[in-house]
Specification:
The structure is a homohexamer. By secondary structure, chain A is of the alpha/beta class. Helix content of chain A is 37%, strand content 22%. The first copy, chain A, has 9 helices and 12 strands. The first copy, chain A, has a 6-stranded mixed β-sheet, with helices on both faces. In chain A, strand 9, helix 7 and strand 10 form a beta-alpha-beta unit. The two termini of chain A are 37 Å apart. The relative contact order of chain A is 0.16. Chains in contact: A-B, A-F, B-C, C-D, D-E, E-F. Chains A and B meet through strand 8 and helix 8 of A and strand 8 and helix 8 of B.
Chain lengths: 256, 256, 256, 256, 256, 256
């Protein structure tokens, strides 16, 4: 199985041409014809993630966030991005990023987040999803549920006794999608990063805001893609092993 | 004492002409010649804050964040900002915003935050401050200290056992100032909102990130200005009372 | 009857979505749900016009020219526009502007002007109208006719003995529409303000230009809308009185 | 005497490098080395003005307004400007424009206008001048004085009984300079074209506006330059005759 | 026959509305109604070309490259372009340019060049053409063939022994069209000017580049238009003589 | 000796901060701390040049033209630039580009070209140089001299019998610097690529143009830098060998 085959499988569930203008999803580093025996999924390319890839023998890393999001003009050891790219090339590891195409995909980042929020009757399109809690609960109880399901610290930006039933959400740094929560008459809005002026606007609109961290709202959706990909390759009886990074977020050691 | 007198007192400690290009600090609503007997300080203008101002008889509200940050072309009851501005005018309450000028001022938002982080040997200019903890501590311990001093939820974006001595900071949504923390060889960086790609860059640079919430990192500096202003008016024996809003952040009731 | 009802009536004769890009016609100040018993029409909001509105008990002013044409970032007594807006809000007077939508409307500003120019067989669309004088006359005679019908000073920008039969026009500051007068083989062009280089171009094209003043070419069309609105509310037996401002143009007293 | 010599004489009283960015003052058509025996001054190049130049044998026309103000890409008989330029070249007539440099010059367009307004103690720089009437008079009386001195129709944009003593002015289409009249505490402002929103702003500021026509406010200053140039060439005993166009403004005959 | 008639004939074979945005093809100087007895074709307007036009009594010059490609604001003897335009107007010679419309036309500049390259099975649209050599030859031989057929110096930018069969081309300064040669699997690419980085890209893609000079690749196509026009006017029995400039390229004498 | 040491040596003769805005000279690929035993100089990075570098054991390539001149967002085998960069990184070869800084440097690209043109009394700054031939010669003779000295095909864009004494020049694609040749009263102008409209302008100004090819005008200056660098490292007794590429320009084999 080649890098191109894997690219095509991802494209079939999260088409790369649905990515946002300005995004950099796609095959970023490597060769479409490279043969693949193992793949590592991770939210971002970091030094520990490349260590993991080397350890498991992965010839391909698939991340959510792209490298070279800002176009580059040099590739030296002086910058972090330069070091990461140079190491990938020397280790002969290809890199595919599935970013805003995966955010929007059916069964993608936001759909996975909606399930982890405990919602039913999930609807929505683009980057927004909404649904209903099985039964009404306080903002405090919902914050505790989120902390447990997403394994994260939750910042509750509303009174603790506010009652919650209908919930809107957008993973990562998507707090400007609160406006769709208002249009859908949601009681609450969940996101990874919630900016202060959005929190104020939600307060005015009577919506309780729950900030759950960028990593915690996106990592589960990437793991779901890994599982789907493992099933797909197994189905065609290809002997490709799919791993998910076990490195905690933001855990770089200081460069020795 | 008039609105203009109060404006001049604030200008003497946080000159309005030091504000960022594009900011909207200054006298936003009201009349320079209005006589003032009471003032209310709050991070933002909200309905509960105007309720408070009316309750204490304040003719002037002083906030950190400006209204009309985006220029406006109408003033109707249809928008939140329209309702707030119309109510201020009808209640005859003037509004002064001290935003990026107060962030940078000596004794302003960031200096106050540095003290609450427990730092000594505080240096820095513009929006950045750094200093030293009396003794080295783990990231977990420093996060607990911040949670207690700032009365907030802290999101720790680094391994818990990382050791911390030198700390950099920028209040509010200032996580791009982490680069100054790197230049100052800080072990940690504190801010209100920390964006994911900044957290990754800090991890690569060996800096532990502590996200403490926009409100929690800025409110103390505004209270400090209130206290300084009370002292200034007392000193000239003016009978002006200065209040600080006691409304919790993001606590709007749903509009009935 | 509410502000929204009045807005809808105007919209039915001069749809607000036909306004020019960059214009600011619509409900600018107030509340859609406010109950209305009296309305004052005026070309512009000025202090004497607000005096009139207060005197007749109007809860709504309808003007041709919008306030906040340039977006604003403060509302203080220091600027003329700030004083006007603050007074409207405190007097609880709503403001609707019908500007470029009314210029173009059937029966609107330009159609009314065409009738006052003594034209028949009136045609045209957008901001331009043309028609024929019942009989040919000299430029001098037509200038006198305009001065009488529009109650204004006319600047004749052509030889006095030029003969006129077909006339084109555009109210207000619309002298660049002379080109449509040329395309329609007009002998004359009427507008409120005529710029020098347009007058030269008309001279070269053999078109006599008549500059009649901005106010004089637009006020009659606004009065016509007032009359139409009075008829409309009478027809549905609503007890709303419609007034037209009697304040002369440019008559502000010096602020005491 | 050559075209270049004349250019240099004008440059010495109205330096061409003081012209506004975007203006097109200077030698526009012809040859610096052409020998000159007669010169015709006119506000604009028009067909009747070229007729006059041919009739008096002028090899050079000097105007206030430039040709090719908008850059051109063709020179055909299809456009008015094309016909004028082609005829100048075929008649071997050079063209110099002295526009915004002459507006500002000492003794230039605006200084000449100030004298014709009957002012004393004339001050100002750039495009603005102000001065004092020998004695206070009503707006009506001052309008009559202007109509007589400038041989024009005056549009009075203020109450007729307003009293006038200090007067500001800017020739041509310069009504945005009213703000300098306000800063100089003028009672009145004179210009060629006065835009409606400037007239409203002046009314609010207690300034009476007098619109006197573009041609009438600028032609006297150009005649003054003609006289000065005649004196200069006489002084060096050059036998060059200087004429001023006697064609009325906007008097083009229809092209036969 | 008038200038307009000639314009229409050219338009029928190379429609002016197919010209590139920013081009300046069309009637640039003169009068549509001018009667024409002789026409001179030349790649560019230069002093020797105007000499030729005068010598043969041509009232119309037709060039490939337009004058006033950059819009102009003056017409004096100080600039080369000013001198050329002024002389055309004084000699009463009209000027039509057929530039990017003729490049693309069927039978136009690029089709003519393809024939002179010895190609068969010519296809292509827009500015690109490709075809096949009757038999494979070395790059050296093809360069010699081009030098002879186009009467020019050829810069060969590839190894001399490279074998050539399929050839792509774009006249003048069109070396960025090499990419179409690659898409059409050409072995070689011919143009007037070939930029270094395009030559490098062609080397990487295995395409041999032949730079033949701007004049040499475009002049033949203009001569072809002259011949077609002579046939067209002969066909309608108009007595109009069509000449082609015999002035060598870049042969201006130094202005005396 | 490290890459940084070599960078510093080049900087001392052709300072990198003199490069043009938008250029990409500097250390583009690799590590400042890499130890260097051999260096290869070449005008451009191409596959054959990397082959040469590998063959001679060069850890550093120094080129005139930068890679990543247009910023990039991916590094795959699909593009030529991607393949070149990936191969450099895998071969552990660093890359320094000295482009517009070397063009301008004393003893750099243009100074070297001036000597090869046979000039004396060489002056000039920036990208332009001029000088005098020992004795006057015809354009034909000078073209032959250039063809011999630069080992290139010369396109002579002027009459063959034009006499030449003073010569201006700018290497590569610098034909817009002909204007400095005119200001310096040169009889001739030499460049790598000469655009048609520049050749026309030179013809009008009486300047003979000689187009010598991009590679031929720049390669000698790069070789001169190689020699200077070899001397510099020898002088400090470092055992670093400096090679100059012997690959002909535009000689890529078709990728197998």
């Amino acid at each position: 199985m080649t890098v191109q085959n894997i690219y095509d499988l991802i494209h079939s569930v999260a088409p790369f041409d649905t990515q946002w203008e300005g995004d950099n999803s796609g095959l970023l580093i490597g060769s479409p014809s490279q043969e693949i025996s193992s793949i590592l999924f991770a939210l971002d390319v970091t030094e520990p993630v490349i260590d993991e890839a080397v350890a498991v023998g992965a010839e391909l890393i698939i991340t959510h966030h792209p490298l070279m999001f800002s176009p580059i003009r040099s590739l030296t050891d002086v910058s972090c991005e330069g070091r990461l790219i140079r190491r990938l090339i020397r280790e002969n590891i290809s890199l595919i990023a599935a970013h805003t195409n995966l955010d929007q995909a059916s069964g993608g980042i936001n759909d996975t987040l909606a399930v982890l929020c405990g919602l039913t009757d999930i609807t929505g399109e683009g980057f927004f999803r909404s649904g209903i809690l099985p039964e009404e609960m306080t903002a405090r109880s919902f914050a505790d549920l989120l902390a447990k399901n997403l394994e994260t610290t939750v910042r509750l930006m509303a009174p603790e006794d506010r009652m919650i039933r209908r919930v809107g959400l957008c993973s990562g740094g998507g707090s400007d999608y609160w406006i769709q929560a208002a249009e859908n008459k949601c009681d609450a809005f969940v996101s990874g990063e919630i900016r202060h002026h959005h929190a104020l606007a939600m307060a005015d609109a009577g919506i309780a805001a729950f900030e759950c961290g960028h990593f915690a709202t996106e990592e589960p959706g990437l793991s779901a893609l890994a599982e789907a990909l493992q099933n797909a390759v197994d189905h065609v009886k290809c002997n490709v092993r799919v791993y998910v990074s076990a490195v905690p977020a933001y855990s770089y050691p200081r460069t020795p």
